[in-house]
Amino acid sequence: MILKYPFVTEKATMMLEGENKLQFIVQRDATKQDIRRELESVFEQEVSEVRTMMTMKGEKKAIVRFADEKAAEEILSRLGIM
């Protein structure tokens, strides 16, 4: 499993509401294509953009934008976060 867990902070919530983006902590060796494939297969939503970065704790964080404007909220509600 490439996705470890969703990264939910106040800033991440603002990105969800304003830009339709979610943040996930992923495996360090995961590529953007790996992340895109896994998200599309697990959540059955089209991913339009994947950006990655390393956190100060040494974890890899993916910022994902979905094609459907309500997809991010739907995914968080499915996960039981919102």
Automatic annotation (TrEMBL):
Gene3D superfamilies: 3.30.70.330. Keywords: Ribonucleoprotein, Ribosomal protein, RNA-binding, rRNA-binding. The keyword Ribosomal protein applies. GO terms for cellular component: ribonucleoprotein complex; ribosome. GO terms for molecular function: rRNA binding; structural constituent of ribosome. It holds the Pfam family Ribosomal_L23. The keyword Cell inner membrane does not apply. CDD domains: RRM_SF. InterPro entries: Nucleotide-bd_a/b_plait_sf, Ribosomal_uL23, Ribosomal_uL23-like, Ribosomal_uL23/eL15/eS24_sf. GO terms for biological process: translation. NCBIfam families: PRK14548.1, uL23_arch. Part of the 50S ribosomal subunit. Contacts protein L29. Belongs to the universal ribosomal protein uL23 family. Binds to 23S rRNA. One of the proteins that surrounds the polypeptide exit tunnel on the outside of the ribosome. This is Large ribosomal subunit protein uL23. The lineage of its organism: Archaea, Methanobacteriati, Methanobacteriota, Stenosarchaea group, Methanomicrobia.
